[in-house]
Amino acid sequence: MKFFRVVYRNLIRNRRRSLLTILSIAVSMFIFAALFALPSFVDRVLAASATNPRLVCHGKAGLGYSLPEAYGRRIAAIPHVVGVDLWNWFGGIYHLPSDQFPNLATEPNQTETVWPDWRVSRESVDAFQHERTAALVGLSTMQRFGFRLGQQIMLHDSVYGRNLQLRIVGTLGKGTMPTMLIFRRDYLQQAIGQTGRADFIWIRVDRLESIPQVIQAVDSQFANSSDPTTTESEQSFQAGFIESLRTIIRLAEVLSVIVLLSISLVAANTAAMSVRERRVEFAVMRSIGFTAPRVVALVGAEGALTGVIGGAIGAGVAWIVLHLLPLSGDLFGSLGTVTMPASVPVAAIALSTLIGISSGLVPATLAMRRKVVDELRAIG
Contact 276/363 with Cβ under 8 angstroms? Predict the structure, then answer.
């Protein structure tokens, strides 16, 4: 009990220095936690998509080339295919250009078959299938704009110059993008006066083992047509989007390491200054019975407490910020929003504790090598 009391009193002796050290560690741990949440987010997206027996079929020339919607009926006849959903991106704006969020048109009768992980309620599915202007909205977009079930909203598209009036009949569960809004393809085609084309064709197969066989069957069927296709698994499709972010993620990791090294040096310099100022005090403590390991343990405990407090503050703020970001918009487009797994703040606090301990132990150990007599003689 006396040990921790001494640690606490030494820590608050120079409150300004202790506060600045804690804040510097907190800032570094905030950056570390926020940046290292990106690789965790990527791994989580790819791991989730790897368990879904879904394929996406798009134009071989590129994602900007649409496909005939008749392909959907032909794909549905392929063995092992249990559902086919055609997508058309709309790009509608709600009120201001800054209010954009992913919105697209889908086949209403394929929601449950192709996207069971969206966890749409039975009542919402029925309304979506029977009401022409029905829309399903992600939870983040619902919170962002204060939408409510049954509300009428208007989306304006600058490309087609059309306004679509939609009625929110349900929400999309956590198995999809929290910012997405979907509505019916037949309503979109009627509004823009165009039919017969789809931007993407999503395919659900009966099991994961059937994916290679279905991919080969789809692409070989349309290989010699005027609109050849490229079919890939959902994981591969997501990885293609994520690949463009790899450089940013690597830079984020390097930056976080640089910040950690910089703060480690700052903490070590602060601890060295503190030990140098307290050399005489340590000599007096040793002369009245404190052993050298005991004094070193006191300094290490002070550093550990400083690191724990700074790490907890930094990781806590980063967790709050990343969990509030979905309310203000989508960070990575079709990939969804970044959230922080529990392992990241735990690692941040562990690292900050290690920084605090190591920064104090090294100068304290060196100081204990000096003879007590020499240190006490310096008093006189």
Answer: yes
Q: Which phi and psi (to 5°) does residue 135 adopt?
A: -140, 145
Query: With 0-12 CB in 10 A as exposed, 13-18 as middle and 19+ as buried, what is 32?
Result: buried
Q: Is the pLDDT of residue 213 over 90?
A: yes
d(CA 204, CA 181): 21
The answer to whether 30 and 318 are in contact (CB under 8 A) is yes
Q: Report the alpha-carbon distance of residue 107 to residue 123 in Å, rounded.
A: 17
Spatial separation of the C-alpha atoms in residues 17 and 195, rounded to whole Å = 69
Is pTM, for the whole model, over 0.70? no
Domain definitions of the chain by residue range: 2-46+245-377, 66-226
Report how far residue 227's alpha carbon sits from residue 72's, in angstroms, rounded to the nearest whole number: 13
| Residue reference for tokens 């569960």 | 173
Query: Rounded to the nearest 10 degrees, what angle do helices 15-50 and 343-367 cross at?
Result: 140
* Inter-residue contact 42 to 329 (CB < 8 Å): no
Per-residue pLDDT reduced to its tens digit, 239-261: 766 666 667 777 777 877 887 78
